[in-house]
């Protein structure tokens, strides 16, 4: 058995267990049968989309990221400052 089929098997077991658990959780919370059946798809779907979004390349090379870090610029801080400036611009808040 190769590693790909082992991983696929583990993923299938985990997905089944997650689906059953979430469906039971929704039923215990008062959801009807249809809503309880759709609940796992929405929750796991959102998790899957978020994971894929995080793993997609940003278009910035590792070298460029490394150069920014060497200059002491934290990419999250740079983004936060940019968003803050945009928010202040839209809402006319003094800095």
Name its key features.
95 residues, mainly alpha, 4 helices
Account of the protein in words:
This protein is an all-alpha fold and 95 residues long. It is flat, with a radius of gyration of 22 Å. The protein is 79% helix and 0% strand. It has helices spanning 3-28, 33-55, 62-70, 75-91. α1 packs across α2 (33-55).
State the gist of this model.
By secondary structure, the protein is an all-alpha fold. It has four helices and no strands.
Give the arrangement of secondary structure elements.
Layout: H1 3-28, H2 33-55, H3 62-70, H4 75-91
Helix pairs in contact: 1-2
Distance between the termini: 62 Å
Return the string of H and E elements: HHHH
Average pLDDT figure: 83
Largest sheet: none
């Amino acid at each position: 058995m190769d590693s790909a089929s082992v991983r696929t098997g583990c993923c299938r077991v985990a997905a089944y267990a997650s689906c059953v658990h979430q469906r039971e959780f929704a039923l215990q919370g008062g959801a009807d049968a249809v809503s309880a059946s759709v609940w796992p798809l929405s929750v796991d779907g959102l998790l899957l989309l978020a994971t894929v979004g995080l793993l997609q390349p940003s278009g910035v090379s590792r070298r460029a990221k490394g150069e920014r870090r060497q200059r002491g610029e934290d990419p999250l801080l740079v983004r936060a400052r940019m968003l803050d400036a945009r928010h202040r611009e839209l809402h006319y808040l003094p800095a």
